[in-house]
Specification:
Elements: H1 2-18, E1 27-32, H2 42-50, E2 54-58, E3 68-69, E4 72-73, E5 77-81, H3 94-102, E6 106-110, H4 117-123, E7 127-128, E8 136-137, E9 150-152, E10 167-169, E11 175-176, E12 182-187, E13 193-194, H5 203-213, E14 224-230, E15 236-240, H6 248-252, H7 263-274, E16 281-290, E17 300-301, E18 305-316, E19 321-324, E20 332-337, E21 339-345, E22 355-361, E23 367-375, E24 383-392, H8 407-441
Parallel strand pairs: 1-2, 1-5, 5-6, 6-15, 17-24
Antiparallel strand pairs: 3-4, 7-11, 8-13, 9-10, 12-14, 14-15, 16-18, 18-19, 18-22, 20-21, 20-23, 23-24
């Protein structure tokens, strides 16, 4: 009986892993504003549950379940559908949410035109919210809907499919700061702007700003509607300017041309990226050795021929496993001591998935060096690794007996010796002949 129970538990655990979708875990805490109804987002939440995620719902002011205990997160991901909430329980603060990212917990945050604690949280990630009460407005294309309900074209992005239809959006935009870790996902239409009224009051000021700087701060496609941020630890957070973007109403609403909107597919792919299902990479291992050897040496000698190898895999959400990945073509290896002495391309090896290899000569400089791989591209997990190795000069018995570059010196030394020998021989011989002549004269 115990054996059957143990086997059943093991089977359920394996089944859970088989249907795992995220590379970091499947537990999700959903903070749902009391003014929102769960059934209004049934497609979004139902899609997550069908994918294998375990959702736990909680009101923002509830004390249980705790988002973290003893500085250890209780959930792998957190969704904050609390755009109207101004007060939270004591365990939910902007600082605690930032701390979750340090523990590799991913966040999905929706913003509001009103001033809330989440507005201040967004500024920590180089997002600039507009003044309170200024939603996004666009009068194009012509449509019966209000100017605040806009069909937005989905631009090309590495984390989205190329065939997503336009999505309905009604909410607040944000300007993007200069952080290199921002990942723009959905931008505002070029003809849209943020304003506090629908009668175009203040349109002249926006037009003047656009004439001076190309686009006003709160107008045009430079505004972000959905933006991601990836930390150095590869945890991810997504800020969306509208909670309605994920609703059933917008998913079912037809576009002005009569076609279905792309809200459902767009929301699914955004969450897949935020929860590290897609574009999740890692370095499994690295090796280095001399040519014609297999084991890494304790130290290298200057001018050694070195082979460096890295093995990289990508997460496959369909199987819940990591598989070898050879799709990177612009990775570089640095052999550095303070500054890179060698920077060389680290290409994939043909016919060996996931293997990247390069051969190079150690510089004519001894010291403590590092093999450094630091690959960062927007949307993809950052790949970073560093291995320290010493490089020493040759030992006394490793130098060659004769150096080709020293032949002029060898020739000079030999010619000097030969010349001295001939001079001495001639001088001694000449002295004997002089004495013989003197004797004959007497």
């Amino acid at each position: 009986m115990r054996f059957l129970v143990s086997a059943l538990v093991s089977f359920l655990a394996l089944a859970g892993n088989a249907f795992a979708r995220s590379s970091t875990g499947d537990s999700v805490l959903v903070l749902l504003d009391p003014s929102l109804k769960r059934e209004d987002y049934s497609k979004f939440f139902g899609g997550l549950e069908e994918s294998g995620y375990h959702l736990t719902f909680r009101a923002p002011k509830d004390a249980q379940p705790l988002i973290a205990e003893f500085d250890v997160p209780n959930f792998s991901h957190v969704i904050l559908f609390t755009s109207e909430t101004k007060t939270y329980a004591s365990d939910i603060t902007p600082q605690s949410l930032v701390g979750l990212l340090s523990d590799n917990t991913n966040l999905l945050v929706t913003l509001s035109p009103k001033q809330t604690p989440l507005s201040s949280l967004s500024t920590e990630f180089s997002l600039i919210p507009p003044p309170p009460g200024t939603p996004l407005i666009s009068h194009h294309p012509a449509r019966p809907e209000p100017a605040t309900l806009i069909p937005v074209h989905v631009t090309e992005s590495p984390l989205l499919s190329s065939d997503i239809p336009p999505v309905w959006f009604s909410g607040v935009p944000h300007a993007l700061g200069n952080s290199p870790y921002l990942v723009p996902i959905l931008r505002a239409p070029a003809e849209s702007f943020a304003a506090d009224s629908l009668d175009d009051t203040g349109a002249d000021a926006i037009f003047d700003a656009s004439q001076k700087a190309g686009e006003g701060l709160w107008a045009g496609s430079q505004l972000g509607l959905v933006t991601g941020f990836q930390t150095l630890k590869n945890s991810r957070v997504v800020f969306a300017g509208s909670v309605d973007l994920f609703s059933d109403e917008y998913a079912n609403k037809l576009l002005p041309d009569g076609k279905a909107s792309g809200n459902e597919l767009f929301a699914k792919e955004v969450v897949a990226w935020a929860f590290q299902e897609t574009l999740a990479l890692r370095i499994d291992s690295t090796t280095h050795h001399r040519v014609d050897e297999l084991a890494p040496p304790e130290m290298y000698t200057i001018n050694d021929q070195i082979v460096y190898t890295a093995y990289i895999s990508a997460y496959d959400p369909r199987t819940g496993s990591w598989k070898p990945y050879s799709g990177i073509t612009d990775m570089q290896l640095e052999f550095t001591m303070l500054d890179p002495h060698i920077r060389i391309t680290l290409p994939p090896v043909a016919g060996e998935p996931g293997k990247y290899q390069v051969q190079f000569r150690a510089p004519d400089r001894h010291g403590v060096f590092k093999f450094v791989v630091d690959w960062r591209r927007k949307g993809f997990s950052f790949l970073q690794t560093a291995t320290t190795v010493p490089v020493v000069p040759p030992r006394h018995d490793q130098y060659p007996r004769f150096l080709s570059a020293a032949w002029p010196y060898y020739a000079g030394a030999i010619s000097t010796s030969v010349g001295f020998f001939l001079f001495a021989a001639l001088w001694l011989a000449g002295d004997v002949r002089d004495k013989r002549k003197d004797r004959k004269t007497e």
